[in-house]
Amino acid sequence: MLASRWPTARALQKTPLQCLHQASYTSRYIQTGSRARLSKGTHLTLLAPRHVVPFHGSTRHLAATVESPSSHETPQPYSPPTSGILARLPSSWVPYAELIRLDKPTGTYYLFFPCLFSTLLAAPLATPMASPLSVIGTTALFFSGALIMRGAGCSINDLWDRNLDPHVTRTRLRPIARGAITPFKALTYTGFQLLAGLGILLQFPTSCLFYGIPSLILVACYPLAKRVTYYPQAVLGLTFSWGAIMGFPALGVDLLSNSAALTAAGFLYASNVAWTVLYDMIYAHMDIKDDVKAGIKSIALKHDAETKQVLTGLATVQIGLLGAAGWAAGAGPLFFAGSCGGAALTLGYMIKKVNLKSVKDCWWWFVNGCWITGGVITLGLGADYVVRYTKGEQTATGTEA
C-alpha cells in the first residue's frame, strides 16, 4: 500500500507534462525502496517496495495507485477424482490407488506384453508342447504379477522422486509429492506389494524364483538412473522387458539346457529393451521442459534434435531382434509376417505421425501404441503357436493310429 498526503496548491498548478516528468522521477525512487519528495510539503511513503506506481493527475488532487507485479499463473490445487475407478473407492484409499497408478494402466500393459510374448514363443518349445489352457493360465498369472509389480515400481519411483516431483507439472500432485502419503507409509505399502508379488511368483515353477527375484534390483535402480545418465530409458528397458525371459521357465522350458530356447529368450529380451526405450523416449518428450528445470536427465533431452532418427533406429533394432528370436525358436511364416511385418508397419506409422512438441499427441501414441504394436506382435505369435500346436496334435493322433 502507498500512503500519500494531499498536495499543496503550488503542486496542483503544474502542467500535465511537468506532472508526468515528476511522476517518472518519483517512480524511480519508489522502485528502489526510497522516499521521494514531490514538492514542498508533499511526501510519498513506500510500504511495499518494487511495486510500480503509475500516477494520475487531476485538477482536484494527485492520486497514487499500486499494481502488483506480473507472476505465473497459480497452479490448480488437487481435487479428488469425480469419475473413473478412483471415484468409486473410499476417500482414504484414493492416494494409495493413485500411488500405484490404478487409473493409468498403460504401464501395466507394457510390463505384461513381454511376458505374453515369451509365453507364446516358449509354448511350442515345451515338452510336451504347452496346451492352450496352460498358456491361458500362465498368461493370467503374468497379468496379475504385472499389475502388482508395476504398482510396486511406481511406489519405489515416487519414493526416490519425492523431492523432484513437486517441480514437474505432470507429477506435482502425486500422493507423496503433495503430502497425502508420508514416505514411511509409502515404504510400508511397497513392502506389502512386494510380498503380494512374491505370492504370485510362487505359483510358477520353482525355477522362476531364480529368474524373477534379480529383476527387483533393476526396479530399485531405475529412479536413480535418471539422476546420473541421459539414458535412464535403457535401465527401464532392462526392467520392463524381464518378462521376455520368464515365459520359458514358467512353461517348464529349461533355458540352461536348451540352447535354442536360451537364444530365443535372449533375442526376445533385447528386442523388448529396444521397444521400451522407443516408447519411453516419446513419453519423455511430455516432460522435456520441466525436466530441464528439475535437473532430470532423459534420452529425449540428449537427442531432442534427432529424436525421430533415433526412434527409427530403435524400431529397426527391435524388429531385427524379434525376427532373430523367432528364427531361434523355429517360428513359421505367420510369425514373420504378422509379428515382424506388423511391428514394422505400426512403428513406422507412429514415428512418422507423432508430434513430439505436443504433450497430448505424445500421450496418445504412448497409450495406443502399446496396443497397436503389442497387439500385432501378439497376433503373429499366437497364430504361429496355434498352427504348430494343431500340427503337433495331428502328428500325435497319426502316430497313435
UniProtKB/TrEMBL annotation:
| Molecular functions per Gene Ontology | 4-hydroxybenzoate polyprenyltransferase activity
Name its co-factor(s). Mg(2+)
Q: Per the annotation, which location comes first and is thus the protein's main one? A: mitochondrion
A GO cellular component term found in this entry reads: mitochondrial inner membrane
* Keyword annotations: Glycoprotein, Isoprene biosynthesis, Membrane, Mitochondrion, Mitochondrion inner membrane, Transferase, Transmembrane, Transmembrane helix, Ubiquinone biosynthesis
Regions that span the bilayer: 109-127, 208-225, 234-253, 259-279, 310-328, 334-351, 363-383
Gene3D superfamilies, alphabetized: UbiA prenyltransferase
Q: Which reaction does it catalyse?
A: an all-trans-polyprenyl diphosphate + 4-hydroxybenzoate = a 4-hydroxy-3-(all-trans-polyprenyl)benzoate + diphosphate
This protein's record includes keyword rRNA processing: no
Enzyme class, first EC level, given as a word: transferase
Pathway, per record: Cofactor biosynthesis; ubiquinone biosynthesis; Secondary metabolite biosynthesis; terpenoid biosynthesis
CDD domains the UniProt entry points to: PT_UbiA_COQ2
> In what way does this protein cross or attach to the membrane?
Multi-pass membrane protein
UniProt cross-references to PROSITE patterns, sorted A to Z: UBIA
Q: Where is this chain's protein located in or outside the cell?
A: Mitochondrion inner membrane
**In the Enzyme Commission scheme, what number(s) does this protein have?**
2.5.1.39
Any one GO biological process: isoprenoid biosynthetic process
What InterPro entries does the annotation carry? HB_polyprenyltransferase-like, Prenyltransferase, UbiA_prenyltransferase, UbiA_prenylTrfase_CS, UbiA_sf
User: Is Mitochondrion among this UniProt entry's keywords?
Assistant: yes
Q: Briefly, what is this protein's role?
A: Catalyzes the prenylation of para-hydroxybenzoate (PHB) with an all-trans polyprenyl group. Mediates the second step in the final reaction sequence of coenzyme Q (CoQ) biosynthesis, which is the condensation of the polyisoprenoid side chain with PHB, generating the first membrane-bound Q intermediate.
Q: Which NCBIfam families match?
A: ubiA_proteo
Family, per the entry? Belongs to the UbiA prenyltransferase family.
Protein's name in the database: 4-hydroxybenzoate polyprenyltransferase, mitochondrial
